[in-house]
Specification:
Layout lengths: L3 E4 L12 E4 L2 E7 L5 E7 L5 E7 H14 L10 H14 L20
């Protein structure tokens, strides 16, 4: 509950082409995404006990990825340069733009008709 993310420095240069990330929110796509090598998330559990999860490498990437979701971000929002342009093109080509591709619970009809 109420997670707080801490990281080592996040690279501001183009990531290695093999340093890709994907997401179920953007099925079937992978793009090179720069992430910090180390991350720690702290918060509390349902009984208000402190919780800490810390890791490097892939675990650090996962902690940052999931923390971004809680802040309303997708990994695509972190892309740089040509990778950002390629992602925008892919989204447009797939028709993943416009109001029919979003759902605000409580305001919009349920996408599955429930």
């Amino acid at each position: 509950i109420n997670p707080v993310l801490e990281t080592s420095g996040i690279p501001e240069t183009m990531p290695d082409p093999d340093d890709t990330e994907g997401c179920l929110s953007v099925p079937g796509e992978l793009f090179p995404t720069g992430r910090a090598h180390w991350a720690r998330v702290t918060g509390v559990d349902v009984e208000n006990n402190p919780v800490t999860v810390e890791g490097t490498g892939y675990l650090a990437r996962c902690l940052q990825h999931e923390s971004d979701h809680l802040a309303g971000l997708l990994y695509l929002d972190r892309l740089l340069g040509r990778h950002r342009r390629a992602a925008k093109k892919m989204i447009k080509e797939r028709g993943w733009v416009g109001p029919r591709n979003s759902w605000l619970p409580g305001a919009d009809a349920h996408p599955l008709g429930l």
